[in-house]
């Protein structure tokens, strides 16, 4: 995997972070490479980590229906870390993937130290909610 700092800066969530903030995030993440078919999250399970997609794609399935495909720059699993609730979807790698992982403790630490990230995550979650509502009412 290439330099993590470069990957972090390419993630929309982190794009506006300062070099110092990116260094803090870099200290908090681990790297993981997975093969196609690997299940990253199971709907209903308790979330213990969040993922940032560096490369590759994954399918997001809720209640047996594919609701999205995610790729580089996407974050996966942050909702369960924010509210402590169960995973809202099953996410399965559809190609080989390179990921950055934040444990629950590291995730909370980064949000405490870089509060603007909490705002950016809230905006992303609101965007997802609107998309679900729009598809429900059409």
Topology of this protein?
Blueprint: H1 4-10, H2 19-28, E1 30-34, E2 39-41, E3 49-55, E4 58-62, E5 65-70, E6 75-76, H3 78-83, E7 90-93, E8 97-103, H4 104-113, H5 115-137
Antiparallel strand pairs: 1-8, 2-7, 3-6, 3-8, 4-5, 4-7
Question: How would you portray this structure in words?
Answer:
With 138 residues, the chain is of the alpha+beta class. The protein has one domain: Jelly Rolls (Sandwich). 41% of the residues lie in helices and 28% in strands. It has 5 helices and 8 strands. It has helices spanning 4-10, 19-28, 78-83, 104-113, 115-137; strands spanning 30-34, 39-41, 49-55, 58-62, 65-70, 75-76, 90-93, 97-103. Strands 1-8-3-6 form a 4-stranded antiparallel beta sheet. Strands 2-7-4-5 form a 4-stranded antiparallel beta sheet, with no helix packed on it. Strand 4 (58-62) and strand 5 form a beta hairpin. Helix 1 crosses helix 2 and helix 2 packs antiparallel against helix 4. The termini are far apart. The model has no long low-confidence stretch (mean pLDDT 85).
At CATH's second level, what is the architecture? Sandwich
What gross morphology would you assign?
globular
The class by helix and strand makeup works out as alpha+beta
Biggest sheet features: 4 strands, antiparallel
- Helix coverage percent of residues? 40-55%
First-residue to last-residue Cα separation: 42 Å
Average per-residue pLDDT, rounded, comes to 85
Number of domains: 1
Report low-confidence residues grouped into runs of 5 or more: none
Element-level helix/strand string: HHEEEEEEHEEHH
How many distinct helices? 5
CATH superfamily: Jelly Rolls
* Number of beta-strand segments: 8
């Amino acid at each position: 995997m290439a330099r993590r700092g470069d990957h972090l800066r390419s993630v929309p969530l982190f794009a506006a972070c300062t070099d110092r903030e990116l260094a803090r995030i870099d200290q908090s993440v681990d790297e993981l490479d997975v093969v196609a078919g690997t299940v990253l999250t199971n709907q209903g399970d308790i979330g213990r980590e969040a993922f940032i997609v560096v490369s590759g794609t994954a399918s997001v399935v809720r209640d047996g229906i594919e609701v999205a495909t995610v790729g580089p720059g996407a974050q996966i699993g942050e909702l369960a870390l924010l509210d402590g609730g169960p995973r809202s979807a099953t996410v399965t790698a559809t190609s080989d993937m390179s990921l950055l992982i934040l444990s629950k403790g590291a995730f909370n630490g980064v949000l405490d130290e870089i509060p603007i990230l909490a705002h950016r995550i809230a905006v992303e979650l609101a965007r997802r909610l609107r998309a679900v509502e729009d598809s429900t009412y059409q």
